[in-house]
Design a protein that fits this description.
23% helix; 322 residues; 7 helices; 17 strands; five-stranded mixed sheet
């Protein structure tokens, strides 16, 4: 078994299926006519109810209360497999079984016809239902823009877990936290750093010099004076790599170099990378083909700053303390 599949097993979330979940799932599935459809919708509904309970336990706000959601007559183009995370979008819940080698994802065009009900899709959550129907396992997810999804079929191993493209539940929580940060940034005054930093996840760069790294950051280079880490970010359906190199010239001054590049292609024209510069904002814009943007910074020890990636009206920020 590969290291990735071992990790997925370790990070998968077991969750009980209660009697009330089974009763609610049967009531909804009974609205469909064929036995095959009823069985499929019963399992998918169990997956949704388990996912709802799990995310509410983590403090996410969900919405399963819409009456039309549980009326099959109102859902001509889909089967209520999505879980709405309020303010973030919808996770499509896909049931898998032990030994399953592939899963067919719901066609995009069918769900899109009911976009007013479904909203923005975050991605696909894979949930394994036990044969007893008394326990479930939240296995992992694929983000909605993942290239494998274009084929509507995702390869699964003989143990029921996806190959390297399937991401872990920890990855999903990090991804949702990142989306919450992006949504928060859209409502905050860009110059109100005190309020902004009080409400978001912060990376402490001095820790890198002591070989302490935050989740999501991958160490890539190190010498006696400099520590470099990188992180993948998702914006407008594309994946970018944010890399920061950190060194300390003296007790007060921290030197940081910010590098942004595409994962497998040049940066898109019009993309902007911004950082605060004293009382203003410094921005680099891609006006011609470029592989990367590089911005050097000199910061006081303990100084707060952010790095913003923007494409059109869509943007996201990562927050740091030097």
């Amino acid at each position: 078994m590969s290291d990735k599949l071992n990790l997925l097993r370790e990070l998968a979330i077991p969750f009980p299926i209660t009697v009330s979940f089974r009763r609610q799932a049967k009531a909804y599935a009974s609205q469909y006519f064929t036995q095959d459809a009823q069985h499929r919708i019963y399992l998918n509904t169990l997956a949704v109810l388990v996912a709802d309970a799990y995310f509410r336990m983590l403090g996410f706000e969900t919405n399963l209360a819409k009456p039309e959601r549980w009326n099959a007559a109102h859902r001509l183009w889909n089967e209520a497999n999505e879980l709405e995370l309020i303010g973030l979008g919808n996770l499509e819940c896909c049931v898998i079984t032990t030994g399953q080698e592939s899963v067919i994802l719901p066609p995009e065009n069918l769900s899109d016809r009911n976009s007013n009900l479904l909203g923005v899709r975050i991605g696909y959550l894979f949930v394994e239902i036990s044969s007893s129907e008394k326990a479930a396992t939240l296995v992992g997810f694929l983000p909605a823009f993942h290239p494998e999804i274009a084929d509507e079929k995702v390869a699964m191993s003989t143990t029921g877990y996806a190959y390297a493209d399937l991401q872990s539940m920890d990855d999903l929580i990090d991804y949702l936290a990142q989306q919450e940060t992006s949504s928060l940034a859209e409502t905050i005054d860009p110059n109100d750093l005190t309020r902004e930093f009080a409400q978001t996840k912060i990376t402490y760069l001095r820790n890198w010099l002591n070989n302490v790294y935050a989740a999501g950051w991958e160490p890539s280079m190190r010498d006696l004076r400099t520590a470099t880490c990188k992180k993948k970010l998702q914006l407008s359906g594309q994946v970018f790599e944010l890399q920061l190199s950190v060194s300390q010239s003296n007790d007060e001054l921290i030197l940081v170099r910010v590098i942004v590049q595409g994962e497998s292609a040049a940066l898109p024209r019009g993309m902007q990378v911004s950082v605060p510069d004293e009382s203003e904002i410094y921005t680099e814009t891609v006006n011609e083909p470029a592989d990367l943007i590089s911005i050097p910074l000199e910061l006081s020890s303990g100084e707060e700053f952010w790095v913003e990636l923007r494409i059109g009206e869509t943007f996201m920020r990562e927050y740091f303390i030097a």
